[in-house]
Amino acid sequence: MWLILLLIIAVWVIFSVKDIRLKWISKPTFNYFKCALPELSETEKEAMKAGDTWWDASLFSGKPDWNMWLKSGKPRLSDEEQAFVSNELAELMAMLDESEITARGDLSEETWQFLREKGFFSMIIPKSFGGKEFSAQANSVIVSTIATRSLSAAVTVMVPNSLGPAELLLHFGTQLQQQHWLPKLASGEVLPCFALTSLHAGSDAGGITDHATVCRQEYEGKDVLGLKVTWSKRYITLAPVADVLGLAFKVYDPDNLLSEQVERGITCALIPTSHDGVNQGERHDPMGLAFMNGTTSGKDVFIPLDWVIGGESGVGKGWRMLVSCLSAGRGISLPALSAGTAQLCAKSTSAYTQLRYQFKQPIGQFEGVQSASARIFGLTYSIEAARENTALAVDLKKKPSVITAIAKYHLTEQARVVINDAMDIHGGKAIQKGPLNYLANHYAGMPISITVEGANILTRNLMIFGQGASRCHPFILQEMEAAQMDDPEQGLKVFDKLLVEHIAHSGKNAVKALLNGLTVGRFVRSPVSGDVARYYQKLTWYSQVLSSLSDIAMLKLGGKLKYREMQSARLGDMLSHLYLASCVLKKYEDDGHQCGDLPLLHVAMSYHLSSYSNAMKSFVDNFLPRGFRSIVRRVFFPFGTRSREVSDEQVKALCASVYENHTTRMRISTLCPSQNMPGLEKLESALNLSKKVTSAYHDFLRWQKKQSIKLYAKSLPEQLSEACEAGVISEGDKQLLGEWLQLSDEALSVDVSSAS
């Protein structure tokens, strides 16, 4: 007892007496920290400075403020935005037929003109320049809705409203550049594209070899300071039809015409595609989809310095421009495509499984089909929750680089699971292409979302926790800045103060995680009551564990953690599923905590909590020495994580809710209209009628089975007539059954084509 007391006093003295603390704790740690810090490239430094944090920082801190989260705002559209959705968007949807678009290899001229005239390319442009000035939420809803019908059209609308000329001009363009280009972009007179990717630079944008030399040259009769640019880009969406090319390249100034610095860095410029030397190359064929995607190149093309975004002061600022605007692509566009794909799958699968009979019963009654269906429904609910709240962050003027990376990676991966399950359930109907097939093109297009805006493997392994560890942690970024101060003594003073706060913060989180482990989080405060409260308790507990494990990882590896990609990815998965689960809980509250949504919430939460648990176990098993693994588990989870995979009961309850409750089904398909989409419209018509004939049809099937020997050679109308004469079904039932069976046959049919 005395030994423990003396130890406590010694620790207190060391940390309380500044001179002792500086000598024995802070200075050695400071020196270790400086050595452990990795040497950051310029692109990494820019990425660290770009963007900000939001709810991710609260989760990472181990102290999530649930009241703040639930009061951060409800996703909603303005009256003007809703009117656009109800009118212009509805009119566009009636014009789209993905089968025809794919066969043609392009949108129709009528559709292109409609998109230009109605402002679909100007959603992010302010009204003062002739744009719509829609919210990120409206942008996301519009792209999601279009994506349920046509990925080709959705991508075409998405790109001008994502990372590209308009976005860059709004944030970094000069006043003259904005006045010249934005009205033309808003009216559709000019169609933009943005070219970043080249042969040897994809996810590593800093590795681009496209270059420009600062020089003077005669242009339009005047001696002009400018750039001679050489580039060769690929995978550029809208490049084959663009009127203005946004271009990223590296600038060199060997003659010191701008400054004494020769290597000026990545720069972005706007170049009319009609300009001499600009080549709009051949089209690519992205998985058979019809959106315009291709190459662009140029060699020693002279452009005035005024064409650089931001003018002369914008030279070398291109990478900062790009990373600060990535929230549009990662946080809005790709989650919107994922939501559209998922909602199409949820709507079609929930109908198909009730109409497709095998062994005299709907396939939706088979537990194997229910398991895959529940995964579709639960993940679709989760995807929509994350889509809404990530767009909300952008509307709140946040640029949360970590959250948008989470949304990009996990929503596209979840949509891939959803489309795969939908394809499995639909079987042969899903693999015969044609107007009646509503899944095939989405299945083909899924790898595109996985690949663009930073390949998913890179996003998961390098970006989510790689940026999250420094940006979201309450102290790490400040400690890094202190360690890099030019004045070591001043740096040590700042570091000492931060270190004391850091140790106190980590100690509190570790103690809380231990106590919550012993009580399995039962005494954590929740902002709500009832069954849902338990989820808030677990997420708070799990947040504390993530904070503690992150500190352990960073203490052990320091800057080397970024090279331990598999470990970084697992910690990133833990943070990701905390965020995604938070979005599910917030959506449930935002939607008025409807009882019918509880089965959706339970399946989605079980998925995220079990995924967090699996990531945590994998991290501990692979990161810590064998002897420490059991210690960490016993400290943080002495009775286990108390999370399990989606249960059979949850699967059955969710499927029953979707099949029997129209509101629940609409909740996961609200952005997916079925009108004017032949395959889906037939499914919906047959499903609506099925509610009236289910009982009579089951009576007919039982009678049909008993009379099989007499009936096998007779047509279905003849069988229905005999059943009516036998008193098995009424005359009214016979008429309805005949109509329903014909509708069902049409809905379940596939397209055929004549042999060539």
Indicate the topology.
Blueprint: H1 2-16, H2 18-36, H3 42-49, H4 55-61, H5 66-70, H6 79-95, H7 98-104, H8 109-117, H9 136-149, H10 151-158, H11 165-172, H12 175-187, E1 192-195, E2 211-219, E3 222-237, E4 244-252, E5 263-272, E6 279-283, E7 293-304, H13 318-324, H14 326-355, E8 357-358, E9 361-362, H15 367-395, H16 401-426, H17 428-431, H18 440-451, H19 456-471, H20 476-483, H21 488-518, H22 533-557, H23 565-590, H24 598-623, H25 626-636, H26 648-660, H27 662-667, H28 678-706, H29 708-711, H30 716-725, H31 731-748
Helix pairs in contact: 1-2, 2-21, 3-13, 6-9, 9-10, 9-14, 14-15, 14-16, 14-28, 15-16, 15-23, 15-24, 15-26, 16-18, 16-19, 16-23, 19-23, 20-21, 21-22, 22-23, 22-24, 23-24, 24-26, 28-31, 30-31
CATH architecture of the domain at 192-324: Beta Barrel
Shape type: flat
In the CATH scheme, the class of the domain at 192-324 would be Mainly Beta
The percentage of residues in β strands lies in 5-15%
CATH superfamily of the domain at 192-324: Butyryl-CoA Dehydrogenase, subunit A, domain 2
The residue fraction in helices comes out at: 55-70%
How many helices? The count is 31
Radius of gyration over C-alpha positions, nearest whole angstrom: 29 Å
| Mean pLDDT figure | 90
GO molecular function, one term: flavin adenine dinucleotide binding
Keywords: FAD, Flavoprotein, Oxidoreductase
Family: Belongs to the acyl-CoA dehydrogenase family.
EC number: 1.3.8.7, 1.3.8.8
